[in-house]
Predict the 3D structure of the following.
Amino acid sequence: MDVLLNVQGVTKEFSGERLFEPVSFIVRDHDRTAIIGPNGTGKSTLIKILLGQEEATSGQVIISKNVKIGYLSQDVIENPDNTLYEEALSVFRPLMEEEKKLSELSLKISENPDDTSLLNEYSKRQEAFEANDGYNYKYKIDMILNMFSFHHDSYDRKISTFSGGEKTRVAFAKLLLMNPDILILDEPTNHLDIISIEWLEDYLS
C-alpha cells in the first residue's frame, strides 16, 4: 500500500522541557491509526505538528505529494451565513459547475443533433462526471447529514443559528463529504449520540 504520511523521530520541547520522546510512524493507504495516552502527554501537540500548525523541535513529517489532510474543526465551515445545505453543496462546487456545462451542452446538441464535435465533447465530459460519482453527490449529502441527525427541516437554517455542538457536527459531516486522503480526528465523538457513533464506526471501517 502507498505511504501517505511518514513521521521520523519527531520531538517537541517547551522551555527546554521535552514533551515527548522521538515519535516515528508511517500511515499507509487504508490504515487506521490511534494515538493513545493520558492527558498532557502531547497528543494534540503532535496532531498540530502533523498539520503544520506547530514546528517540531527535531525530526520531520513527510506528506506524500497530492495527499489531502482533513482535520475536524469548525474552521472547515466556509461561511456561517450559508444554510446547512449550501455549506454541504460547497464541497461539490466543481461537480455542480460540470453538471451545468453538461446541461448547456445537451441543449446545444438538441439544437444541432448532427454536430459530432458537440457529441464527442458531451461524451467525454459525461464519462468524467460519472467517474467522479457526479450523479450521486446529492444522495451523499442527504445520507451524511441524516446520520449526523440533520434532517430536511434544518437544511435551510443558517449555520450561524446552530449551537457550538451542532456546528461541530456540521463540520464533521462536511469533512466526510470532502473525503480527504488522511482524516485526523481529535476526540471526535464528543458531540455525537450513540447512533451517530455506531454509524461513524461502520463508515470508517
